[in-house]
Structures are given as C-alpha cells and as structure tokens.
Amino acid sequence: MTAVLLLEDAAAGYVEAWRQLAPALELQVPTDPVEAVRLAQRPCYWLGQPDRAAALLREGVKPLWLQSTWAGYAPLLAADLPDDYRFSRAVGLFGQSIGEYVLTYLLQHERQVAARQLSQREGHWDTRAPGTLAGRRLLLVGAGDIGQDIARLLAPFGMILTGVARSARTLPGFARVVPLAELHQVARDAGFVVNLLPDSGSTRDLYDADFFAALPAGALFINAGRGTSVVDAELIAALESGQLAGAVLDVFRQEPLPAEHPFWRTPNLHLTAHVAGPTPPAAAVRLFLDNLQRLQQGQPLRGAVELAAQSKV
Predict the structure, then answer these.
(1) Are the C-beta atoms of residues 60 and 290 closer than 8 Å to each other?
(2) Above 80 in pLDDT, residue 281?
(3) Mean pLDDT, residues 32-59 taken together
(4) Which domains are seen in the chain, by residue range?
(5) 28-39 pLDDT, tens per residue?
(6) Which residue in 142, 106, 97, 140 sits closest to 277, CA to CA?
(7) What is the pLDDT, as a whole number, of residue 186?
(8) What superkingdom heads the lineage (predicted)?
(9) CA atoms within 13 A on the CB side of 13
(10) pLDDT by residue (tens digit) across 226-260?
(11) According to the model, what pLDDT value does residue 251 have?
(12) Which of 30, 105, 286, 313 ranks highest by number of CB atoms within 10 Å?
C-alpha cells in the first residue's frame, strides 16, 4: 500500500484521527523539513498544507497526489513550481464553521451587542429597538461550496442573498448569482457584504474606495476570504468616514498582523486571528480516505483542481 506523507504544522490531531479512521494505512509524519524531503523521495501521497507542500516541491520532489487541508491553494501557484501532479483542495470542511462566524457578527451588529455592553458598564438603561436580519440584503462574494453552505445556514433568518461567482447561475438559497464583473452594481443595495474569495490575480485589491462608495451608507463588511482582497487604507477611510458602520476581518495581508498596523486602532473594526474556518482534522482525514477510494476506482476526486490551468502568481 502506498504511504501517506503528512504535511501539517499541528500534526497531533491528524495522527489521532488517522489511528481511529485508517489504522491499516501507513502515515509518515516528518519531524523536520530535512526528514520530509527524505520521505518524499519515495513515491507517496501527500496530505496537508499547501505552503509545506510548496516547500517540498522546491526541493525537486512531487507527490503521486496531494490532498490539501486548505480551501485555498495560492502557495502552489508560484511561477517556479511544477503543476504536473494530481491535486485536490479541501471541500466540505469549512462551511459550518465560517457560517457560524459570519452569523455571529451579523447578529452582533443587528442586536447592537457592543453598544449594549457599553450601556451596561455605564449603568444606562438602553431601550433602543434592535434590528433584525429578516428581509436584509446580504452580498456573498464567493458562491462555491463554502458560500452555499452559508446560504443554507442563513436560510431560516429570512435574508435576501445575492451571490457573486465566476459566472451567473441559479443556486438554492440565493435570489440570484452574478459574475464578478457586476460586483459594484449589486453592492448598491447590500446591507452586508461577506467576502469568501481566495487569493488570485482577479481578487487582489477588489475592495477599494470605489467599492466601499458603491455600498449604501451604514453597511457591514466581513472578510473571511483573503487579506489581499482589501485595500487596507481605503477600508480604514470608509470606517472613519462612517460610510461603513463596521467591518470584521479574519484575514490580512501579513499574518500575524503587525503591532504597528493601523487596523488595531481603527474604530468599528473587529479583528480575529484567521480562526473563522479552522480545518477539522477528522473531517480532513475522511475527505482524504474518500478521495483515495475514488482515486483507486478511477472516479473524479472531490475538489479536484487542474493546477496547469490556473494563473501563476
């Protein structure tokens, strides 16, 4: 049986899940980069992070197949890396977690949680009526598997969802789905915007001054996609001017976010440390095992990506 090379910074959860779900399969867990290169010299499957896989590829070794534990895979698209190996990204692992993250901040915003906590600290009896999500318009930029999971999670709240994808289509839970070229047009009536897009040439600097100006005043912006999509200074300006009522960022151009970055001091900005959609190890192992069976049976892999067809970065 072909061995599996695990490429994870935090391997313990994967090793435990492997013991429970696939004890008969050989799992190799390198203790350092040198051992990883040595183990990868032998033909094997890889399971793990694209950044660690990219480091191995630069050493001149390639997998028989790489199952990523990330939804995104930008590190594998570097111009100096090969693309002639089988690859599948992580699918079906993040929708619930990111959906709960988004819902947390939508409700916090509408129920004015921060303001009511301040009223409590000040001993002020705050009788302002809260808002509601029912009937509100949400723009979900990224209507792939994660976006569709979020749409299902939000369905009971009665929101009106517009999706943005590579092309227009009809999807359950969405009033409509439009191509990325129509982003500014559909932003005009969006009270909430949620970004789920990966890092690519077409998504960098997408959320700039023109985009924020297209939104109705008082909108809430949530970024659970990639930090490169946002022009930092122009987001700050939109918050300081009041054009945006608030923003929630889980991803940044540089992580960890430097202590001197102005985001730390920007009003009405909530920051989290790339925790919206952590990979659940047991679910990632199940995905690997399902795709391994598909591979052995000559069936299409879930999340299969033709890297040679992707734009290099």
Answers:
(1) no
(2) yes
(3) 97
(4) 4-93+279-309 (3.40.50.720), 95-271 (3.40.50.720)
(5) 999 999 999 999
(6) 97
(7) 98
(8) Bacteria
(9) 14
(10) 999 999 999 999 999 999 999 999 999 999 999 99
(11) 97
(12) 105
Q: Residue 311's pLDDT is what?
A: 75
Check pLDDT > 90 for residue 175: yes
Size of the chain in residues: 313
pLDDT at 200: 82
Rounded Cα gap, residues 108 and 33, in angstroms: 43
244-267 exposure pattern, b = at least 16 Cβ within 10 A, e = fewer: bebbbbbbbbeeebeeeeebeebe
75-95 exposure pattern, b = at least 16 Cβ within 10 A, e = fewer: bbbeeebebebbbbbbbbbbb
60 phi and psi angles, rounded to 5 deg: 90, 15
Q: Which tokens is 304 given?
A: 């299969």
Q: Return the structure tokens found at 194.
A: 């949620």
With CA atoms as reference, report the closest residue to 230 among 208, 201, 199.
208
- Both tokens of 29, joined, read 């867990």
Question: Can you give the pTM of this predicted structure?
Answer: 0.93
